[in-house]
Each structure stands twice: as structure tokens, then as C-alpha cells.
Amino acid sequence: MEKFLERFDRLLTFWCVLLTGAMTIAVITLVFSRYVLGITFIWAEESISVLFYATTYFGAALGVRCDEHIRIDYFTSKMAPSLERPVKVLQIVVVILLQVFLLRVGINWIAKVGGTLTPGLRIPVKFLYVMFPVNAVIVTFYESVRLVSLFRGKKLPACTGRAENEIQPV
């Protein structure tokens, strides 16, 4: 399972880097064409927005994997050490249930409006909106792995691409 997790992490990281690179190139090209050549393209602006959404969704999934998502742990830091594990389990279960709900909502949403064409790219929005349920599946997968690791008493493998000497928050 660790090998699969590592490969999946690398693939998702590569995908995020690729999306970010494409977005960067698109922004530079669009700025150049607009301000130097005096030409603007609606489809280019829309594609940049889509790339931004994609980096946000898939980057958020990586944040969940690396346990770097936002949380306020004021109350959990004040709890007795014996409650740490049950609270972590509860947090993970709540996140999984929320993702399952979002997956259902996302699929219903795509079924209702998926045939509409985007104004600039002129493609069905279902090809863009699919990021929403895919992100829910990825986050559910990562949280399920975290839950299984917690029950087995094992620590999750380190995140791929994370620097060993990175400064950790206090």
C-alpha cells in the first residue's frame, strides 16, 4: 500500500505542477498578447480560470495528504492525551462523510448542468466540473488511508516532495 500511495502522491504532485506551469504560461502569453499585440481572447481567460480552479482542487487534496489543511487545534491541544486518538478518528470520519456528501452533490450538479457549454471554450461544463467529485474521491482516499493507519498504530509515510529540513509550524 505504501508503494501505491507514494506513486499516487507523485502522480498528483506532477499533475499539480503541470497545471501550475500551464497556467503560468497561459497568463504570460495572455498578458503579452493583450498589452503588446493589443489582442485578447475570451477562451484564454476562461482557460486560465479553469486551470486556477484545478490547481486549487488538486492542491487541496495534496494538502489533506500532507496533513497541512487549515485547522484550529486550540481545544484539542487542551484535551487529555487519552482523548487524542478518538478525536482524530472523529475528525477523519467527519471529513470522509463530508466528502461523500460533496461527491453526491457534485454528481447531481453535473447531471443537471453538465450539458451547458462554456462561453469561451465552447465545451460542456461537465468536463470542467468533474474536478469537484474527483477531488472528493481523492480526499476520501487520503483520509481513509489516514484512518486505517491510525487504527493499525502506524504512522503514514512522509509526503512526497517534502523537504526534510522544512520548518514546521509551532
TrEMBL record:
- The source organism is bioreactor metagenome
Subcellular location per UniProt equals:
Cell inner membrane
TM spans (from-to): 12-36, 48-66, 87-107, 127-145
Quick one: where is this thing mainly located? membrane
Provide an example Pfam family for this protein. DctQ
The record gives the membrane topology as: Multi-pass membrane protein
Please state what the protein is called.
Tripartite ATP-independent periplasmic transporters DctQ component domain-containing protein
Lineage summary: unclassified sequences, metagenomes, ecological metagenomes
Q: Give the InterPro entries listed for this entry.
A: DctQ, TRAP_DctQ
Alphabetized, the UniProt keywords read: Cell inner membrane, Cell membrane, Membrane, Transmembrane, Transmembrane helix, Transport
The UniProt GO MF terms for this protein read:
transmembrane transporter activity
| GO terms of biological process kind | C4-dicarboxylate transport
Which is a Gene Ontology cellular component entry for this protein?
plasma membrane
Q: Where is the Tripartite ATP-independent periplasmic transporters DctQ component domain?
A: 23-152
